[in-house]
Specification:
With 271 residues, this protein is an alpha+beta fold. Helices cover 38% and strands 18% of the residues.
């Protein structure tokens, strides 16, 4: 979504926004670039949700060493970030994401609160069981999407009580802090991460989504592998993990993404 109207007032301690100009690329928010009274470059985001949930994610990633813009202010639906730019550094970015994934939290899967992936709620809560959390807190809530045909919904429900747990649990994954929505549209200049939907997950989920739509160069994946290669069998688990983000797209954008869901089920032989 582009900025159709003027920028909002900034949180009081930040003063005024000077020389505002719309920034494109956002799908559900309005974003402007500008400067503060002292000339500092900022990005101002107005969201259709309370931005404290996004601040929570950015601070978690920052604490784990991720390259994210500094949060300068947040109030209601307005988030003010340091405006970041720079030369692409894809290999380094991949290495830093792998380092972030080393953050295993307290050893449980989930998150301490509900948060958002786009407009969709990611339910919070905790579990020691990766496949159970993925099935019940990620896949099952999205099966109610209006655009999802009943036949496809039934195939996923059979997988949840059938082959899914064994497939996702066989390598005994440990939790990793993940960005949660890591695709090319949420990477600035090949070096900065924005718009997180963080939680503690099997890190294979992150890499499965990052690879799904293209746009992220091989240097990123090489950088990741230079720090922490994925375990054997990751390629076989990838279609099952991609079901989550494909179902999110069905929920947001409708039937045009159902084909992707069916394709992954077919690859897995889940009828």
């Amino acid at each position: 979504m582009t900025a159709a109207s003027g920028p909002p007032a900034l949180p009081g301690h930040l003063g005024r926004l000077h020389d505002p100009r719309p920034l494109g690329g956002g799908m559900i928010c309005q974003v402007w670039a500008g400067t503060l009274d002292d000339g500092s470059p900022v990005a101002v985001k107005q969201a259709p949700y309370a931005v404290d949930v996004e601040v929570d994610g950015l601070r978690a990633l920052d604490a784990a060493g991720a390259p994210v813009p500094a949060v300068l202010g947040a109030e209601g639906d307005v988030l003010v970030l340091r405006h970041v730019q720079g030369a692409p550094a894809w290999h380094d970015l991949g290495a830093r994401v792998a380092t972030v994934h080393r953050d295993g939290g307290d050893g449980r899967f989930g998150w301490h609160r509900d948060n958002l992936l786009g407009r969709a709620v990611q339910p919070g809560g905790w579990s020691d069981d990766w496949s159970a959390f993925f099935a019940e807190h990620r896949l099952r809530p999205l099966l109610a999407a209006d655009a999802l045909p009943g036949t496809v919904r039934a195939r996923i429900e059979r997988a949840i009580v059938g082959p899914l747990p064994a497939l996702l649990g066989a390598h005994e994954p440990t939790p990793s802090l993940v960005h949660g929505d890591l695709w090319s549209g949420n990477i600035i200049d090949g070096r900065w991460l924005i718009d997180p939907a963080v939680w503690m997950a099997d890190r294979e989920l992150e890499m499965a989504f990052t690879a799904m739509f293209g746009g992220v160069p091989e240097a990123f994946f090489n950088g990741y592998d230079s720090v922490w290669p994925l375990p054997s069998g990751a390629a076989q688990r990838r279609p099952a993990l991609q079901l989550y983000h494909l179902l999110i797209h069905v929920w947001h954008f409708g039937a045009s993404y159902v084909g992707g869901v069916v394709d992954r089920l077919d690859r897995l032989g889940w009828t």
